[in-house]
Amino acid sequence: GDSVTQMEGPVTLSEEAFLTINCTYTATGYPSLFWYVQYPGEGLQLLLKATKADDKGSNKGFEATYRKETTSFHLEKGSVQVSDSAVYFCALSDWGTSGSRLTFGEGTQLTVNP
Amino acid sequence: DVKVTQSSRYLVKRTGEKVFLECVQDMDHENMFWYRQDPGLGLRLIYFSYDVKMKEKGDIPEGYSVSREKKERFSLILESASTNQTSMYLCASSGTGGNQPQHFGDGTRLSIL
Question: In whole angstroms, what is the distance from residue A71 CA to residue A4 CA?
Fold first, then answer.
């Protein structure tokens, strides 16, 4: 079946540091890929998405590129802020296998210190 | 913007009670989902629905049921609440198609005493 593997957390960075959160996936079809962010005490918010190979999703300074050859969708940001402290989830949707269901990674806790 | 509204942010109930969690979306989405989120266990799908009056079991349906009488509303029911159902419950909705993201509500933190 489909699966998503994220780098283990927690991740702690200083403000203005470069962020990478690794995400790799396995899927039987041609999935769409998503990154969600969850701030403390809130639900998940869609951060960015990519629907086909080599697509780059971007939002609020975050970027991720759909790499089919390495089955990866790593999240990056050039300069993190304290306000980026949250849990980040990588997810995929594999329409042919599981319809509109999402398969989530375990989440990566990010803490940014001033 | 899509708005998914969960009826309560915090809820405290007693063991054995019947508990209703309500979710409403305003984007005419066909699909609606209920998850629970627990530390160390990530997000787990309880039930989902692709249309009015339709429901499908997710990965952990035991102890729960759902109702979808109208397209915009999806209710999660704990038939007889137990302490191991203390959790954060998240509702989501999406349009049809594999590239459609799910949009989440703010969650309901449910405590069963």
Answer: 10
